[in-house]
Amino acid sequence: MTTPNLFNIKMIQKYDKAGPRYTSYPTAPMFHNAINGDVYAKTLNDVAQSDSPLSLYIHIPFCNTVCYYCGCNKIVTKKYERAQPYLELLIKEIDMVADAMGETKRPVTQLHLGGGTPTFLNDEQMRQLTNHLHKRFNFVPDAQGEYGIEMDPRECTESTVKVLRECGFNRMSMGVQDFDPIVQKAVNRIQSKEETLRVLNDARNNGFTSMNIDLMYGLPHQTVETFNQTLDTIIEFSPDRIALFNYAHLPKMFMPQRRIDEAAIPEPQVKLDILEHSIHKLLDAGYVFVGMDHFAKPDDEMAIAQKEGNLYRNFQGYSTHADCDLIGLGLTSIGYVGGNFFQNAKDMDDYEADIQGNHFSVFRGYQLTQEDHLRRHVIMRLMCDFTLDYKTFESEYNIDFKAHFADALNDLKTMQDDQLLVLNDDGMQVLTAGRLLIRNIAMAFDEHLRAKQGETKFSKVI
Hints:
10-stranded mixed β-sheet, globular, 20 strands, Arc Repressor Mutant, subunit A, 3-stranded antiparallel β-sheet
């Protein structure tokens, strides 16, 4: 893959419109409140005897400071005493899920703690949580599982890293965004190179097998020159994976973003220049472009999974494990179980009342139809493989692919004319110039987006 072909400025400017990230299909705006805790309880019971693996996601919502760019579901507080009652609710929810599934033997191959800041929990609380998870679920051995946690290096000592490894975590993701002090001050995230490198080295020394670093372009005061310095530092750190996110300024949706000086946000062309330079730099440093905003070393599991056709997307982004039931635990968490999406309450009082009352705190969700499953599968393979083999879907879903998706394929002819993809009789191939625009290509197969065009706001694809 050559860098100039990957970054085609003319095509990016033409197709840079808003669209879903497709961490789920249908996307979250389609969720509705007819899916509730009773439906969830029945579904957990129904899937208990399956022999396919399980994935667990746990949401820790607390942060002790607010990063102005953040659009995550979080509670900003310096009251660390709030962690214990929340932990007790999590443990009770874990028991409710395990009890609903009975004596299931399903192996847990993935665990992910996100937030917020998961290490808002202290070392003993983290031990209490993970010990209880291992008591109630059947985790595969360390070498076979993907057990990750999101980290804020500012709240992580060497002791914390050791405890996390003892608790079974073998992968770590750290937010950096940008090392430039002017940018950091503008977004209220002051974080030194030294403390970030210290945590990364501590993790490696304690046996963590994969490290990811998050960067963000489009933040206030960023330029190609200043961001290049951050890239130099990150490449020297040599993490296994790098996520390069586009900052989406949506202050009407995310209150903290109202504190950002809009006049300091880079102009659209500057953002594109930063992105182009970053892609050049990361590919030249030996990273593989996995998709959308993810890069990985060639020998990393994510790059290998893509090469072997085993890459997958869920609410945490790209994943190396096959499609499996995902159980969400904690405030606002989203799960995918038995062909249904389930989301927990977003309000802490509601979540607490439900769990204390022995009710699953599901306030909305979505039950996929057969058509949804088909389109979810198509979009998943496009996002992960950049290619489709029509026969795969024709045999599994008993359809004539070209007839079934005639509207979508017709819409994609313009992209074929622009040399972003190739359509032929038995499949389609996304060309190098189309890879950064994979969200646009996937949107052609989204019947919900087609039906509700203009009703739902998403971030721009670039």
